[in-house]
Amino acid sequence: MTVQDSEKSSRRGRRSTTMGAMPLNDMPWWRWRSNVRSALHMLSDPAFQQETWLAGVPGYGDVTDAVYRLVEDTWLDNWSAEKYVGTIFRDAQEASLVDVAVLRVLRIMHQVGADAPVATYMGHHSWPEAVRAAREAHVRMAVADGDDPDAPPYSLEQLAIMTRGLVA
Fold first, then answer.
1. Which of 35, 44, 46, 116 could join 134 in a cystine, given CB atoms 3.0 to 4.6 angstroms apart?
2. What is the rounded distance in angstroms from the CA atom of residue 19 to the CA atom of residue 132?
3. What's the CA gap between 21 and 34, in Å, rounded?
């Protein structure tokens, strides 16, 4: 199914129980949005990365955790965020900003390796571009949700409580 097909079927009001092979009811859209926002927030904040990830402060995961939170449940590593306009993302511009951020971060991850230390990610020549792209997407989503984009990122425990998930 192409993005265009997806848009046409949603205009006709048909609902599917799957998106590709992924059941739509595995996780509510607001939880997906919270996870994407959390990941983008951490990936977009150089001070957080220095003071938390590089310093090894527990409770926030690492850069690999953030990348997986960004793409794991949404499959944004396999298809465009455009597919989720009207559910996770409010509009095409928000989805487009997320797509740019995902592509930039994944490109770096594939070059340095998923389990590379945060310093390796941060030292990559394309990291500043990835941070800027994540920041643009994060700010757009936070403002659309009525949140302060400059507030500190939530810990993974806070995120789990907000989404009523279990802390791993």
1. 44
2. 30
3. 22
State how far the Cα of 38 lies from the Cα of 145, in Å rounded to an integer. Answer: 13
Comparing C-alpha atoms, which of 150, 3, 139, 138 is closest to residue 69? 138
Residues 97, 142 contacting (CB under 8 angstroms): no
- Classified as helix, coil or strand, 102 is helix
Computed over its alpha carbons, how large is the radius of gyration of the chain?
Answer: 16
pLDDT in tens, 122-163: 999 999 999 999 999 999 999 999 999 999 999 999 999 988
CB 43, CB 105: distance < 8 Å: yes
**If you count them, how many residues does the chain have?**
168
- Please say whether the beta carbons of 38 and 159 come within 8 A: yes
pTM of the model: 0.81
Tokens of 88: 């996770």
Whole-angstrom distance, CA of residue 101 vs CA of residue 134 = 5
| Angle in degrees, 0-180, between the axes of helices 92-112 and 63-71, rounded to the nearest 10 | 140
What is the SS3 string spanning 105-165?
HHHHHHHHCCCCCHHHHHHCCCHHHHHHHHHHHHHHHHHHCCCCCCCCCCCHHHHHHHCCC
